[in-house]
Design goal:
Elements (H helix, E strand, L loop, with lengths): L8 E7 L7 H20 L3 E6 L1 E2 L4 H6 L4 E2 L4 E6 L5 E4 L2 E6 L3 E5 L2 E5 L4 E2 L1 E5 L6 E5 L2 E2 L1 E2 L3 E3 L4 E3 L5 E9 L6 E9 L3 E2 L11 E2 L32 E8 L2 E9 L4 E6 L9 E4 L5 E2 L1 E2 L9 E2 L6 E3 L4 E10 L2 E10 L11 E2 L3 E2 L2 E2 L5 E2 L5 E3 L2 E8 L9 E6 L6 E7 L18 E2 L5 E4 L18 E7 L2 E9 L3 H6 L10 E2 L11 E5 L4 E6 L5 E2 L8 E4 L14 E3 L2 E4 L7 E4 L11 E2 L12 E5 L2 E9 L5 E2 L5 E2 L5 E6 L2 E8 L14
Parallel strand pairs: 3-4, 9-18, 20-52, 42-46
Antiparallel strand pairs: 1-5, 1-7, 2-5, 6-7, 8-11, 10-16, 12-13, 12-17, 14-15, 15-16, 17-18, 19-21, 21-22, 22-23, 23-24, 25-29, 26-27, 28-29, 29-30, 30-31, 32-33, 34-36, 35-36, 36-37, 37-38, 39-40, 40-41, 41-42, 43-44, 44-45, 45-47, 48-49, 49-50, 50-51, 52-53, 53-56, 54-55, 56-57
Length: 662
């Protein structure tokens, strides 16, 4: 016998003498057994494990092992390398048994309510490779835990939960392998930063937990190419019925005026559909001299999805025979086809001032509230004349039509742009709409119409935007004169602070490095000597040292801020107020324009803060410098302790490298 590789085969040696009662037979057995043991000891690939039993009762038992059991057939179990034979020598039978093993792929599987998952089992060490499939210990599963076919196809139940799929060997029922299945009811990311409050939270994440987000278990799955830069946040819809199959779909809009729908699970490499809004004498707009959006301007504001009508609303900016236009498109989620007679050109006037599309950029994210699509505008290149604008459109009568228009400063050089660095208007549970403006004329305190550097609370009723309330910092004139836009960041409606003196809050950060915490039930208007804000939390210095260009996120009482050239910081509400110092912060510093954090969690547990570092963009930076091109870097941190970085996309060499930052 010879072997070169070790394995875990098991050899059973059975002694079966023909004449057990004869002394010479006993001696023959003893001689053969001792000879075999000597042979075993001489082989480098053979290791004696146990002596199990001996029959008949002879001195052989005592001579071999003092603890040998008397009264049954004797078996010597060994670990043997690749001994696949049956040998009988002088009444001595040697049988080789390979250890049965089972493996299962995938070992982890997140699925949506309509998404089936194929599992495969591999059985080795036996010719009987069949397995029995179980879910949570039940053969074939059930309607409450999900079912699994004899071929390993798992169908989830109708409720979210965590389950275990097991493949059990039919050859050896004590051997099995298991996989975890996380069933989520998360419907998708239909709007910028998760919801109308702009919380930045996905609280229904079951698969991703801090223990599973690291370079060993978390990595980039696939990439898809698009035809332009992505300033708009991608959106996601789960369990969308396209044709006869349910798919999870991600939607991406580019500055080349294209919208893509991709299978979010990477099952197809080509897009499900693509729509482009360019054509003969229809082009994107050229970049402005400051290069902050480069190299072209097409779709900049994040679209919004209406899941009830399965419609994606998006604003595309074009030049048509040299004339600037902003058009609202309503696209089918399944096919990308235009709906409701779209597109419609955005236009209107307010207080005698007409909207000039050539002077304005549709930077803020769209908002869907009470069936109305809210669209906001700021300046195109920060060059007067411009104003802040808000439009409302509806498809309630089966055609896209205007239902409201409002200007934040209805005069030629009124300014007061709504731009929010890509954030957008927010809404509360009552359907009230909140926007925060930038520098501009201010005279709301004297019943004027101009709302520079202000928080505004509005409602849309009978085709008219009505301003219900406002807040303006006491140093508004200083902010305006020093170009310290209050609305450089995006607003976030905070969760209700139960038990606090002021439970209903809205937050936004400005270029001055301050987080403004405002009572959205009684915003306080303007007071030059006693600022009516609930709290003004300084997290950094004013621009150009720091400044805020982010939308906050929240989870489990924490609020997350990512100022320029600062760490991402976590502050935790206590009695409706934020402490003066963060409870934790990242060791990483994020360059211009800072970072808008998002959070994934399973309710109040397994919180992870996700941050995309886009500071390596190619183009104009603060102070007129030009950044070299570099990749965007994705970071993941423990949400309850930002000092703990779980993962970043540069840790595994080039394996997870992201696209070029913009």
């Amino acid at each position: 016998m010879s072997s070169s590789n070790a394995s875990n085969d098991v050899c059973a040696i059975h002694f079966r003498p023909a004449h057990a009662a004869a002394d010479h037979s006993h001696r023959e057995i003893e001689a053969n057994a001792l000879g075999l043991l000597a042979l075993c000891a001489a082989q480098p690939y053979l290791r004696l494990v146990t002596l199990v039993s001996c029959r008949p009762q002879t001195t052989l038992a005592g001579s071999l092992h003092p603890t040998i059991h008397r009264g049954g057939p004797m078996a010597i179990r060994t670990t043997l390398a690749k001994l696949g034979f049956l040998l009988t020598v002088l009444g001595l039978t040697i049988s080789s048994f390979a250890a049965v093993t089972v493996t299962i792929v995938p070992r982890r599987a997140p699925v949506t309510l309509k998404q089936k998952q194929q599992f495969k089992a591999n059985v080795s060490g036996t010719t009987n490779i069949g397995v029995t499939w179980l879910v949570d210990g039940t053969v074939g599963g059930s309607s409450t835990v999900g079912t699994i076919s004899t071929s390993g196809l798992y169908a989830p139940p109708s409720k979210a939960g965590t389950h275990t799929v097991t493949a059990r060997s039919k050859a050896n029922t004590s051997v099995s392998a298991a996989a975890s299945v996380w069933v989520t009811s998360y419907p998708g990311m239909m709007t910028y930063h998760g919801d109308v409050s702009r919380s930045g939270l996905n609280g229904q994440e079951r698969a991703l937990a801090p223990s599973r987000v690291n370079t060993a278990t978390f990595s980039r799955l696939f990439t898809r190419s698009v035809d332009g830069n992505l300033y708009a946040q991608p959106l996601y819809v789960a369990n969308l019925l396209i044709g006869t199959s349910y798919q999870n779909v991600v939607y991406a809009a580019t500055e080349h005026d294209s919208v893509y729908a991709f299978n979010a699970d990477g099952k197809t490499t080509s897009p499900i559909w693509k729509r482009n809004f360019l054509g003969t004498n229809i082009t994107t707009q050229p970049r402005k001299s400051n290069n902050l959006i480069s190299p072209e301007i097409g779709i900049t504001g994040t679209p919004v999805i209406d899941p009830s009508s399965k419609t994606l609303f998006v604003v595309a900016t074009t030049l048509e025979s040299g004339v600037a236009k902003h058009k609202l498109h309503a696209l089918s989620l399944m096919t990308g086809a235009e709906k409701y007679g779209g597109p419609v050109t955005i236009s209107g006037s307010y207080a005698g001032l007409a909207f000039d599309p050539a002077r304005h950029l549709q930077r803020p994210a769209l908002l869907l509230v009470n069936g109305e699509v809210i669209i906001c505008f700021g300046s195109h290149g920060d060059s007067l004349p411009y104003q802040g604008w808000m439009f409302a459109y509806s498809a309630s009568s089966s055609t896209l039509h205007s239902t409201g228009v409002f200007s934040t400063a209805p005069s030629s050089n009124g300014a007061a742009a709504i731009w929010n660095s890509g954030g957008g208007p927010a809404a509360d549970t009552n359907g009230n709409i909140f926007v925060v403006t930038g520098n501009g004329v201010f005279d709301l305190d004297t019943a004027g119409p101009n709302a520079g550097d202000s928080f505004l609370k509005l409602t849309l009723s009978n085709g008219v935007f009505q301003m219900l309330d406002f807040y303006t910092p006491s140093n508004e004139s200083t902010l305006n004169s020093q170009d310290q836009d209050l609305g450089s960041g995006g607003p976030m409606v905070a969760p209700t602070q139960n038990g606090a003196a002021t439970p209903n809050l809205i937050l936004c950060g400005g270029k001055d490095g301050i987080i403004y915490v405002v009572n959205r039930s009684n915003m306080g208007h303007f007071n030059a000597t006693a600022d009516p804000a609930v709290q003004k939390l300084t997290i950094g210095s004013p621009e150009p040292i720091n400044g805020n260009w982010f939308t906050p996120a929240n989870w489990n009482g924490y609020v997350y801020f990512g100022g320029t050239d600062e760490s991402v910081m976590a502050f935790k509400f206590t009695n409706g107020l934020l402490p003066t110092s963060p409870s934790s912060q990242t060791t990483n510093i994020f360059g211009y324009p800072g970072a808008s954090a998002t959070v994934s969690a399973s309710g109040t547990s397994n919180g992870i803060v996700w941050v995309l570092d886009n500071s390596a963009f190619l183009g104009g930076a603060r102070g007129g410098t030009v950044n070299p091109a570099g990749p965007a870097i994705l970071h993941a941190y423990r949400a309850d302790d930002l000092a703990v970085e779980l993962y970043n996309s540069s840790q595994a060499g080039t394996r997870d490298t992201g696209g070029t930052a913009i």
